[in-house]
Amino acid sequence: MLTNVSLQVIPSVPESQIYPVVDAVIEYIQSTGIVHTVGPMETTMEGDLDELLKIVKRAQEICVERGAERVCSVVKIDYKPGGVTIDEKVGKYR
Fold this sequence. Notes:
Blueprint: E1 3-11, H1 18-31, E2 35-38, E3 43-47, H2 49-65, E4 71-78, H3 86-90
Antiparallel strand pairs: 1-3, 1-4, 2-3
């Protein structure tokens, strides 16, 4: 069943390091092969909820590995029994 999870990571690093840390998280998400859309404020992923939550956890670890003393994240989950896709939400705008 497909679920959407949006993730915004806010690493506690010097301002000059924010983009490199966020880029490392996005590169990791891309490496997983899951369907995703990168936006200016968050990345939305599509897949199995358990798999997506593992990705969210790993994203926190990546931030710390890249020097963040703390990571605040905003996670949004859209879950319904029949599944939900990114395309059904925004496909008409593409």
